[in-house]
Write a structure and sequence with these properties.
It is a single chain. The protein is of the alpha+beta class. About 35% of the residues lie in helices and about 15% in strands. The chain has 24 helices and 20 strands. The strands form 5 sheets. A 7-stranded mixed β-sheet has the order 3-2-1-4-7-6-5. A hairpin with a 6-residue loop joins strand 8 and strand 9. Helix 3 packs across helix 4.
């Protein structure tokens, strides 16, 4: 039996153990007694009104360092405004004399709290880095701030421009920005440093919390569009906590990139009356219910441990701390779009978000508002391509028995014949690679494309202003063998009639050659569909580079120096830049997405064909213009400098050079300004940057082996395998 001394010691320990905070109801009473609104308290604690509500109804508790601040405030209030019916205990106790004196005097907080609360506007509810908002309670509980990293884990990036880059657009409906990264302890790291407490333990609970309480989302990009659905990114620990496997298991799951229908989480989603898209529960799962009126009910999930963030598009991001992941994705969401899948998917979604297919219009007969076609968009219905614009497995081709050939507008993959190298070129010491910034994006600027279905014409007169596909014979055109042909992706001379996009034939005319099409598929309704897409991505690219220290006001030497270290300055922004570039290329590629899966049979439809954005003709127009732009610069370089390229790979070109810098061979006027028409250095789309430098001997050796120096000029990845 325990001794009396031991029992009394235990009791004394209990008496000394004081509660950290008074009960929730007492917290509310003290605040009201002090005459302080929830909004002013939220301002002082750098929190939100909803979080204060949660503290006062017991739904959540503050954590350090906000805990200590809240505790200090409540202690001060308790001393001034004790409950008349309860004798205070522990740290909340005070003698009756002190209480009476406090009640008799004016109601004031301690000086430090008074200053903080008096500085707050009572009609404003700030959220970390989220801008001002009204006091209307938003359905978003924000948790107390926590350190962005746990003790012992190193920072993943420096943050010279974190506030500028990560601040989302102000919208009172979405006080915490477009997305959050949920960790296994329930901390949801939002944009701008806010950390929310997420109590969800199942996927349905997570969806409900996201839509009802998180305050996540983003406003529409076009007045006729839709708000962006909130994105929740799950760390491996969060995925496991919510009942998901840390990684997709088994051959079938890895192959299909989704959970099977019988998985408990999939059943939970269905039981809670939520739905999954046709993609199922994979790395990018969309969970939704049918919209009620104008209110969408949809949440996008991204599961990091299932490789949702592809290393090629988001280098290093999946290994970052949750707060840093939120920063990277937040900058991308602010400048591009809230991620909805791979960067390719996001690139395609951005087109639709900026050019919504419909707009509201009043019906003249009934007076009701109806959904009508939005001029300049691609509409709501998919459109069959012309046979030469399709792929060989497309139903239009298979069912019609088309044998007339196909459009082959692809990016350059050209290596100059070694026998065309001069002795002077071979004696130059260096091979220097230039890379055009987002060449496809530059080609999308002011690009007129077809908006209506194609019409078939025989022996039409060529018109460079009409987008479409033309059958013509360009084999008679003879060009300098030291340059690639502008008419074929491999740079070889055409051997007979072939299908070309409008820009390719227009360039043949520009070079002084007659063009006589045999037939054509042309579109009567046209428009610059990609202009807003180009503008938004261009700004995103240029602004992100500027945040990394590469600005448009740098001279060429300073630009090259800045580009040497820009990725090291801020790896997080370097990842954003990589994702922006991948969005451009992937978005263009998605315009002609091919069927996937070993069970597909030629002539069957595949899911991508159901999209109005399955438009191989638009893809061809972008690539044709990009290739023509490249050839125009190559041609002008030859005229201005006498230099000819060694190889071209898409948007990278390799030149022989007397020095290691592009400054050693690019053309400049006497004034020192770059010559227009040739390659120019700079940070904007279409201008060039240094891709890499190798020896001329190295480049010639690759050329003799039939390999492309432009593929390996950057170094590091220059592993020559037989499979190239």
């Amino acid at each position: 039996m325990a001794s009396e001394e031991e029992l009394f010691a235990n009791i004394d320990a209990l008496l000394e153990e004081e509660p950290q905070l008074p009960p929730p109801a007492e917290r509310a009473r003290l605040r009201e007694a002090a005459g302080i609104t929830q909004a002013r308290l939220a301002q002082a604690l750098k929190s939100t009104v909803q979080t204060i509500k949660n503290y006062e109804n017991g739904r959540s508790e503050p954590k350090s360092p906000r805990l200590e601040a809240y505790q200090r405030l409540l202690k001060g209030w308790a001393e001034k405004y004790p409950r008349p019916d309860v004798f205070p205990l522990g740290q909340w106790a005070t003698d009756h004399k002190r209480a009476a004196q406090t009640e008799a005097g004016p109601r004031r907080l301690a000086p430090d709290h008074t200053a903080a609360l008096d500085a707050a506007e009572p009609t404003v509810r700030p959220v970390a880095a989220s801008g001002p908002e009204t006091t209307t309670p938003a359905p978003a509980p924000a948790a107390p701030e926590r350190p962005a990293r746990r003790a012992g884990r190193a920072a993943t990036s420096r943050r010279p421009a974190a506030t500028k880059a990560a601040a989302p657009a102000v919208d009172p409906r979405f006080p915490h920005g477009p997305l959050a990264v949920l960790d296994g302890d329930g901390s949801a790291y939002a944009v701008g440093g806010a950390v929310l407490d997420c109590p969800a333990t199942t996927i349905p609970e997570l969806v409900e919390w996201t839509l009802r309480e998180s305050g996540l989302g983003a406003p529409k990009l076009n007045r006729y569009g839709k708000d962006s659905d909130p994105l929740i990114v799950l760390t491996a620990a969060a995925a496991v906590k919510l009942g998901l496997p840390e990684r997709l298991e088994g051959h079938e799951q890895r192959r299909s990139l989704r959970l099977p229908e019988e998985h408990p989480v999939v059943k939970q989603v269905a039981k809670a009356k939520w739905q999954l898209t046709q993609r199922g529960f994979g790395p990018w799962a969309r969970i939704y219910r049918k919209a009620q009126g104008r209110d969408r009910q949809c949440v996008q999930l991204a599961i990091l441990s299932w490789d949702a963030l592809d290393e090629r598009s988001w280098p290093g991001v999946s290994e970052m701390e949750p707060a840093d992941i939120a920063r990277v994705l937040g900058v991308y969401a602010q400048r591009v779009i809230t991620p909805r899948g791979s960067t390719a998917v996001s690139g395609l979604e951005l087109m639709t978000a900026l050019r919504p297919p419909t707009k509201p219009e009043r019906d003249e007969e009934t007076g009701n508002w109806i959904s009508a076609y939005n001029p300049g968009s691609l509409g709501t219905e998919p459109m069959d391509p012309a046979p030469p614009e399709a792929t060989p497995e497309h139903p239009v081709v298979v069912q019609s028995g088309w044998t007339g050939g196909f459009l082959n507008e692809e990016a350059y993959q050209w290596v100059r014949p070694v026998q065309t190298l001069s002795d002077e070129e071979c004696t130059l010491p260096f091979a220097v690679g230039l890379d055009l910034n987002t060449a496809f994006l530059a080609a999308a600027a002011r690009l007129v494309v077809g908006l209506s279905a194609p019409d078939h014409f025989h022996a039409p007169k060529f018109n460079p202003k009409i987008p479409g596909s033309w059958l013509a014979d360009l084999s008679h055109i003879e060009l300098d063998p030291r340059l690639p042909s502008p008419f074929t992706p491999d740079g070889s001379r055409p051997t007979g009639p072939a299908w070309y996009q409008t820009h390719t034939l227009a360039y043949a005319q520009e070079l002084g050659h007659d063009v006589h099409p045999i037939e054509a598929y042309l579109r009567r309704e046209t428009g610059a569909y990609l202009d807003p897409w180009h503008d938004r991505l261009k700004n995103a690219y240029v602004d992100t580079l500027a945040d990394m220290g590469v600005t448009k006001d740098l001279d060429d030497a300073a630009f090259l120096a800045a580009m040497e270290q820009h990725k090291q300055n801020d790896p997080a922004l370097a990842a954003v830049l990589s994702a922006i570039k991948a969005t451009v290329k992937g978005g263009v590629g998605k315009l002609r997405e091919r069927p996937q899966g070993k069970h597909y049979k030629e002539g069957e439809t595949w899911p991508a064909l159901a999209r109005p954005t399955w438009r191989p003709d638009i893809r061809a127009a972008v690539i044709s213009k990009a290739r023509v732009n490249m050839h125009r610069k190559l041609n002008n370089m030859a005229k201005m400098t006498g230099l000819f390229p060694l190889a071209v790979l898409s948007d990278c070109v390799v030149y022989p050079s007397p020095g290691e810098s592009p400054l050693d061979f690019l053309p400049y006027a006497a004034s020192g300004k770059p010559q227009p028409g040739a390659f120019r250095l700079g940070p904007t789309p279409g201008l060039a940057k240094l891709e890499g430098v190798q020896s001329m001997l190295w480049a010639v050796d690759l050329m003799e082996k039939g390999l492309n120096p432009a593929r390996h000029i950057k170094g590091g990845d220059a592993v020559l395998d037989e499979g190239e």
